[in-house]
Every structure is written in C-alpha cells, then in structure tokens.
C-alpha cells in the first residue's frame, strides 16, 4: 500500500487488461478474444499481444503508470479489477465469464506504482464474498467495482444485504455500471438499471453509478432519468462522468451539468476508451469553436486532453476533486 496522492486529480475509473501472461491469473473468453474490440483495447493500452506474452500482463499497468506520470493534470488513477460470473456453488464460472482480472494481481501491481490505486472487484454471490471484501480492504482497495450485466447478479437482491453492510463497515464505496453495456459480447442489460441500486443506497452505502445511467432504458424510462431520481433522493448516491464524452453519449454531459448536481459527480476517464476513436474533441462542434477543437486535439497526453475537453464542455472544478472525499484513500504518512 502506498500513500494517498498529494494534490491533483484522481481518475477513479481506469481499466487494465490481461490474458494470463506472467501468471497473472487474468483471462479473456475465446469469444471476446475473437471480437474486434480485443485488438482495439490492446492498442489503446499501448501494448501488443506479443509483448504481453513476452513480458506478462503487468506490462499494461506499467504502461498506464508511465503515461500517467507524464500528465500535468492527473496525479493518480484507480485501476479496476474485474471479478467474473459465479456458479451455483459460489465459485468462478469461467464458461460464463468474458473477462477476469483478479484482485490479488491488481493489488500487487498497483502497489509498485505510486500513481496507481487499487480498485477491487468482488462478485457478491461468491461463497466467500465477505472474506474477499475484508482482504481487499486490507490490501488497500479504495473502492469495489461491479459490472452486474456481465457478472450476472441483481443489485436489488435482498440476499446481498450482508455484503452491503460489510461495504459500509469497511468504508468502501461501490462503483457499479449503470446503463447499457457496449464493450462485451454477452450482457444482461436489465441488471444495469439504476433503480436496482435503491437497496445499497437505503443501507447507507456510498454508491457511484458509473456513466450516470447515460444510455438504455428500463420499464419504458431512460436509465438517465432513473439515475437522476436516485441522486435527488440519496446524498450517498454519486455518478462518475467517465465515458460521457464518447461519440455515442456526447449529449449526456451537457444535460447532466444543467441539473446542478456537481457535488455528487466524480471524474473518471474509462481509460483506455479516451485513447480510441470513440472520444474526440471534434464530436462537439456546437459546444466548441473550430480553433478550440484543434487545440484540444493537439494535447498529446490522453489524461490531459480528457481533463481539458471536459473543462471546455463546462465541467466545474469541484467535480475533479470530489473523489478525494468519496474514495477510501490511504491515510497520508507524516
């Protein structure tokens, strides 16, 4: 575990990847590896499959740390583990899991880099889920990440109450995907309904709705409006603005900022997506002048460009610092 970042912005939503190289324990399903997304993501992480096979999956986090260290604006990034689906015995079900990035791998590798923080992931249906939560906290986790639509559980399930109470006891916020999921080949998108988060919110868990329910619908209503209802009702409900500058979501950020909920929004990138063609300043000709779009496009560091783009689109300064009070950051050493 390392000290909390001193000053600067924390990217609280940054992914990593792995294929099992270097005994990482990671794996990607055969279907996902055949998908066009696989090569795009590897390139966006500044690696090739051949390099991973030669140097191990830890190379991805090393590359992230190196690029992040060159940023003038962002000090640290939360690297997210990703638990898989589980079977009826509460054990990992590889046949139903598209991507698996274990906690111990991410915890060990982030500890080697002062600008990386550990984001744990625990499927609450695991038979030893509470023990895994305690271990994640002991290893310095700053949050717990869920993607229910590919991990195949319902956040509204009353059987998860002990898990939620343990999160609250450990002061671990829950970052969970809301809205339709586009990055995987096998999803149950009804499980990304923001309304399914009422249970943990009512128990006092800090819940961060990734992407603010910015796409898709449930029960005839947009996930975005279902998210807004929660953020109005619960002061412990937050949203992260990662992915909201992607081409397919480009209208969501402006309407969200008009709602005056900046105190409950957190900055994130959804890296590596800002490193792909899905995010470009040229997608905002109504908001930005041609000159400003060119200026932003010339910012080489992806984190610096992401911050500058969101600032240009009107994201208030407060949003870039909210993570410092919401995440379970390590106590600074004297």
Short description:
By secondary structure, the chain is α/β, with parallel strands linked by helices. It has 14 helices and twelve strands. The chain has an eight-stranded parallel beta sheet. It has a two-stranded antiparallel ribbon with strand order 2-4.
Which architecture per CATH? Alpha-Beta Barrel
What is the string of SSEs from the N terminus onward? EEHHHHEEHEHEHHEHEEEHEHEHHH
Weakly predicted, low-confidence segments = none
How many domains? The number is 1
Rounded to an integer, what's the Rg over CA atoms? 19 Å
Q: How many alpha or pi helices?
A: 14
**Strand adjacency order, main sheet:** 1-3-5-6-7-8-11-12
DSSP E strands, number: 12
CATH class, please? Alpha Beta
Helix content: 25-40%
The largest β sheet comes out as: 8 strands, parallel
At the fourth level of CATH, the homologous superfamily is Metal-dependent hydrolases
**Looking at the structure, what is the overall shape?**
globular
Written description of the protein model:
The chain is of the alpha/beta class and 334 residues long. The protein has a single domain, classed as TIM Barrel (Alpha-Beta Barrel), CATH 3.20.20.140. 33% of the residues lie in helices and 13% in strands. The protein contains 14 helices and 12 strands. The strands form 3 sheets. An 8-stranded parallel β-sheet has the order 1-3-5-6-7-8-11-12. Strands 2-4 form a two-stranded antiparallel sheet. It has a two-stranded antiparallel sheet with strand order 9-10. β11, α11 (252-257) and β12 form a beta-alpha-beta unit. The chain is globular, with a radius of gyration of 19 Å. The mean pLDDT is 93.
């Amino acid at each position: 575990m390392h000290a909390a970042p001193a000053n600067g912005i924390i990217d609280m939503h940054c992914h990593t990847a792995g294929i099992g190289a270097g005994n990482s324990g990671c794996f990607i399903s055969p279907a996902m590896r055949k998908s066009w997304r696989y090569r795009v993501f590897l390139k966006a992480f500044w690696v090739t499959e051949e390099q991973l096979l030669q140097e191990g999956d830890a190379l991805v986090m090393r590359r992230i740390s190196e690029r992040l260290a060159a940023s003038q604006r962002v000090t640290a990034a939360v690297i997210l583990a990703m638990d898989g689906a589980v079977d009826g015995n509460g054990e990992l079900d590889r046949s139903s899991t598209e991507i698996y990035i274990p906690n111990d791998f991410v915890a060990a590798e982030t500890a080697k880099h002062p600008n990386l923080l550990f984001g744990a992931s625990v499927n609450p249906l695991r038979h030893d889920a509470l023990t895994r939560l305690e271990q994640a906290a002991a290893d310095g986790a700053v949050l717990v990440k869920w993607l229910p639509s590919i991990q195949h559980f319902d956040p509204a399930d009353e059987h998860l109450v002990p898990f939620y109470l343990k999160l609250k006891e450990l002061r671990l916020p829950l970052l969970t995907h809301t809205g339709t999921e586009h990055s995987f080949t096998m999803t149950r998108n009804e499980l990304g309904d923001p309304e399914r988060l009422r249970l943990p919110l009512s128990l006092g868990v800090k819940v961060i709705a990734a992407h603010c329910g910015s796409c898709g619908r449930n029960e005839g209503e947009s996930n975005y409006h279902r998210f807004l209802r929660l953020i109005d009702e619960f002061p412990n409900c937050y949203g992260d603005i990662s992915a909201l500058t992607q081409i397919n979501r480009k209208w969501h950020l402006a309407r969200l900022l008009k709602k005056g909920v900046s105190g409950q929004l957190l900055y994130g990138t959804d890296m590596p997506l800002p490193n792909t063609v899905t995010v470009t300043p040229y997608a905002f000709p109504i908001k930005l002048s041609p000159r400003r779009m060119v200026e932003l496009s010339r910012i080489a560091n992806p984190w610096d460009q992401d911050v500058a783009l969101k600032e240009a689109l009107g994201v208030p300064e407060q949003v870039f610092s909210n993570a410092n009070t919401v995440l379970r950051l390590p106590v600074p050493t004297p």
